[in-house]
Amino acid sequence: MKEFEIRRLIENYYDIQKIRVETFNRIVNWVKENKDRIEETLSQYILENQDKNASYKRLETQSINASQRETGIQMNGASHFNYESQEDIASHTENETHRVIASQLSIEIQIKNAVKLLKNKKYSEFVKKFILSQEIIEIQEKNVSHSKHVPHGCFAFSNLLKEIENLIWFHNKLYETEKGLYSRIDEWSKDHPLRKEFLNYVKGIGPIFSSGIIAWFCNPILKAKYVSQIWSYCGLAPGKERKKGKKLSYNPKVKTFCWKIGQSFIKFKCFGRKLYLSFKKECEQKHPDWSKLHIHNWARRKVVKLFIAAVWEVWRKMNNLPVTKPYPIEVLGHKDIITPEKWIEKQAS
């Protein structure tokens, strides 16, 4: 597969991911709006399940007592064989009852966990575990297999889900497609030398980012004698903002991709995040008049530029091309040269 095809697939991957997240948020909003109805149906299930377990226990006691009385009668005139048969039947009935009750208690615990998530307003976790994973549906199926009488509350919840069954179906189809794209994009770059020797070891850079970096940067880096040329190509050099009526002098798709890289570093406990926090603090002191968003964007952009510089240096050295010496950067109170080795923090995946 060619590089331009991978670039398209990565763009599609992020487009699908965006739609999936939007769909997920719509499901979460539905749960928020219907929290009371959902709690009511699940609580009803718990009460019905407890009544059913109590009924099972009463039937078990009656069955054992009846068996004991019958055994006592047969002990007086029946054969030893008949006595053992009655004992086996009673034991089987008791074991079956225990199995059903244990299963019902396990299901009840799961339902209680679902209600607890709702009460604690952990709606996203509830959606992931009990709606998208279809765990409640599986619980209902267990009920059907273990008993002729299924609690009304379980069916009531399934009926509620019918209100968003198309959203659930759409989300899960998008997720399947997203996983398929992920595997295909990962497969494309897994044996590339830049990934094997460097990108696999950088925290915050996974298979999608690795493939994107290889597809968008490798060829331009070989032509760029200075790292500033790559920054310009990415739209990270000074003066590379959009201006009305003027043609862009950088690749806007690459700039968006770099923005995603910066966001990834911020999310992980990694060297990129350490740099971000240091630059953010520095900027707050130097520019107290700047907004929080301005400071955030400036710090993230600086981190991405340093990472791209490391990629530029590594790939050019791997191709026996000359590189310029990096200039010292003030980090955590002292000036330091940010070499590619500083980005290496994990074992290769």
**What oligomeric state do these chains adopt?**
single chain
Q: What characterizes the major β-sheet?
A: 2 strands, antiparallel
Annotation field: number of helices: 13
Low-confidence segments, ≥5 residues, pLDDT <50?
none
- Basic shape: elongated
Name the strands of the widest sheet in spatial order.
1-2
What structural category arises from helix and sheet content? Answer: mainly alpha
- The count of domains is 2
SSE succession: HHHHHHHHHHHHHEE
Rounded to an integer in angstroms, the radius of gyration calculated over CA atoms is: 31 Å
How much β-strand is present in the residues?
under 5%
The level of helicity is over 70%
What's the mean pLDDT score?
Answer: 81
Describe the structure.
The model has no long low-confidence stretch (mean pLDDT 81). The two termini are 22 Å apart. This protein has 13 helices and two strands, in the order αααααααααααααββ. Strands 1-2 form a two-stranded antiparallel sheet. It has helices at residues 3-33, 35-77, 80-119, 123-132, 135-146, 152-161, 165-189, 193-197, 207-223, 227-234, 252-267, 271-286, 292-318, and strands at 329-331, 334-336. The protein has 349 residues and is an all-alpha fold. It has two domains: 26-168; 191-343, no CATH class. The relative contact order is 0.09. Helices cover 74% and strands 2% of the residues. Helix 2 packs antiparallel against helix 6 and helix 11 packs across helix 12 (271-286). A hairpin with a 2-residue loop joins strand 1 and strand 2.
